[in-house]
Design goal:
Layout: E1 2-10, H1 15-30, E2 35-43, E3 53-61, H2 64-73, H3 75-85, E4 90-98
Antiparallel strand pairs: 1-3, 1-4, 2-3
Length: 100
């Protein structure tokens, strides 16, 4: 099992429309081969008044080839959609976790 985690920092002014878009975005990704499930979290750092709203999406994939297929054939277009809809209003960092 592979975990693909996307951490998002979203301007407070667009949280509601961004979440609506993000839920559809997650559904599109889950329709791809090898994606097993996804969970959307709100991240709250303790004792910090954050300038942006923090979200984390955790995807689980069946295996490494499924993740490589996503990166090679789908990631650029799916990411571009969010950037076109919300230019400069959010940022994303990503990481891959492999179970030991």
């Amino acid at each position: 099992m592979i975990v693909y985690e996307v951490s998002l920092e979203v301007d407070h002014a667009i949280v509601a429309p961004y979440l609506a878009w993000l839920r559809d975005h997650i559904a599109q990704i889950l329709a791809l081969p090898g994606f097993v499930d996804a969970h959307l979290y709100e991240r709250r750092d303790v004792a910090v008044d954050a300038p942006r709203h923090s979200l984390v999406v955790v995807y689980r994939l069946s295996d490494e080839p499924a993740l490589e297929n996503y990166f090679t054939h789908h990631a650029a277009a799916l990411r571009a959609d969010g950037q076109a809809r919300f230019p400069g209003q959010f940022s994303a960092t990503r990481r891959v976790l492999r179970e030991l």
